[in-house]
Amino acid sequence: MTASLNGRTSGDCAPFHSGKRRLSSVLSEIRRLLGSSQGYVSSIRIRTPRVAANCLIAVAGLAAAPLFGGDLPTGGDIVAGHAVISATEHTLNVDVASSRAVINWDSFSIGAGHSANFQLPDSTAAVLNRVTSAQMPSTISGALNSNGNILLVNPSGIVVSSSGTVNTNGFAASVFDIGDAEFMKGGALHFNNNGSNAAVTNQGTIATGNGGAHLIANQISNEGSITSLGGNITLSGGGEVTLQDGVTYVQPTLETLAGGISPTAGLIQNTGSIRATGAATAGGEVYLVNPNGKILHDGTITAGQTAIADAQQNIVQPATTPVEGGRVQLEADNISLTENSTIDASGANGGGEVLIGGDWQGTGDMHQATRVAIAEGAKVDASATTQGDGGTIVAWSNVNERESVTSVHGTLSATGGVNGGNGGRIETSGHRLDVSGIIANARAYAGKAGAWLLDPYSLTVTNSATNTTIVAPPLGFISSSGGTNVAASDIEAALNTGSSVYLQTSGTDGDGNGAGNINVNVDITKSAGGNTSLSLYAHKDIVIANNVAISSSSGELAITLKADSDSTNG
Fold it and tell me: pLDDT, tens digit, for every residue of 488-547?
């Protein structure tokens, strides 16, 4: 039931416009209600308004909710904007009249079978909910619903449990705080790292519209499902985080600043499903960003417009319009993709972009990883599925850092469309590389072949590849010393699929004689597929052993050899 005062519900503010003079009579009436109720009053917060429009009485009579119970949020205090809070036994309703509002809560949890509903003026409006009580983590086991955008800030941690659902236009869950004035003003939202090691965890279902879904903490785990129809998805921690406000709330541009790095390296872990379907003509965007920390991907990430099914497998949004693939960006010091993981940025009209550890050739402002591991069985796809060019896949660790290792044993695909389009581009780069058993496919079914680029500090083509051992990912690697060995069979496999191959060396100073050389010690033979090319660009010398041949018995193989390709060795 909805608690009432002198016959008026909590939404009727008229009796209290006279301010503090009526406070004693209000409290007496509340005591009478408490005495007659068989249950509990979960929240009593009377805020004497500075102006009549800000009037709020939050009195929720809940038959089975103790003062600090976890079934519904308690102690709501509107500190900015205009809203009314009311509740029944299983439901909390917040009706917001302003485009933005800030509500401080003693606790913010939703029990199974309970719901919290935020009715906002439109889908661009937003409410910042902040938990102010210490050691009071938020658990959402029921339903959080809104036609607008909901931010939940709790330094003690936030969990969406396996029975929990979030259905909003936009949703952000953060252990980092944001200032009231900045939030109310709009524009870029700066979440300040407070050093909290509390986690944001999703085990349930988060479904948003074009406001996107954003989890912000030093420790983040997605074990459930996160879906955004028309918006972007970000899992970010490690530093200060900025979400750029757009026409519809938080459309990142995601930026992680250098300041505020936690002394304890954080972890972003995905063992569930993340799907950003994007807008009408392009796929969505997914960002996992954790500078100086770790990312462990053991689930599914999709950034493209595909058919979306609900829990009963009913199609709720068919993929009727061909689109280009989206963008997936994994940014951390240490990144691991397990054998069960998939990243899909394919699109009917063109492939998308997947950046793991860095951008193409280390350009741009992404934090460059030290270690990247993609296990055998992992799949990364940025292909055009029908018409158009293949996209871009980058697996990168800092080539200028002597400890950096990129280890790729899975399947990377950036093919052109079956009805026309060129192949895409794939890069595997690091100071040292291990690409044994990789499947790199940038073929074109009806166009020009795409390319696979390998760029370590030095490289030898031999019968066996460099061997690196992954130690409990994403914790580290044991790497062989010296340069990178690439098996001729892995190069031949790429050529035979119809992909061109580029071998390039950077030759970072301080690595001894031979740094920057490309040595070809065994034959390279193309025996299948269409016309391709093999290009060798060495920082120093190209050395082809006696009696070694580079040849093709199927289709053309254009060969380019260029020593001192960067003109730094005279």
Answer: 999 999 999 999 999 999 865 444 445 789 999 999 999 999 999 999 999 999 999 999
Task: For the beta carbon of residue 188, count every other beta carbon within 10 angstroms.
Answer: 14
Does the CA dihedral 272-469-401-354 come out positive or negative? negative
Q: Which helix (H) or strand (E) holds 24?
A: helix 23-36
Helix, strand, coil abundance in the chain, percent, nearest 5: 10, 45, 45
Measured between alpha carbons, how far is 164 from 112 in angstroms, rounded to an integer?
7
Q: Where are the alpha helices (DSSP H) in 319-401?
A: none
Strand pairing class (476-478; 469-471) = antiparallel
What letter does residue 544 receive in the DSSP assignment?
A: E
| H or E stretch at 379 | strand 379-381
What is the model's pLDDT at position 305? Answer: 55
How many helical (H) and strand (E) elements, i.e. helices and strands, does the chain have?
Answer: 3, 52
Look up residue 562 and give its two tokens: 């260029």
Beta strands in 125-264 (DSSP E): 126-131, 138-140, 143-146, 149-153, 158-160, 165-174, 189-191, 199-202, 205-216, 219-222, 225-228, 233-236, 241-246, 249-256
The tokens describing 453, both together, are 């680029």
Cβ-in-10-Å burial (0-12, 13-18, 19+) of 257 comes to: middle
Closest CA to 442 of 356, 397, 492, 383: 383
pTM of this structure: 0.83
**How far lies 70's CA from each of 43, 176, 242, 280, in Å?**
12, 22, 30, 40
For residue 494, the SS3 value is helix
Residues 6 or more apart whose Cβ sits within 8 Å of residue 180: 79, 80, 102, 128
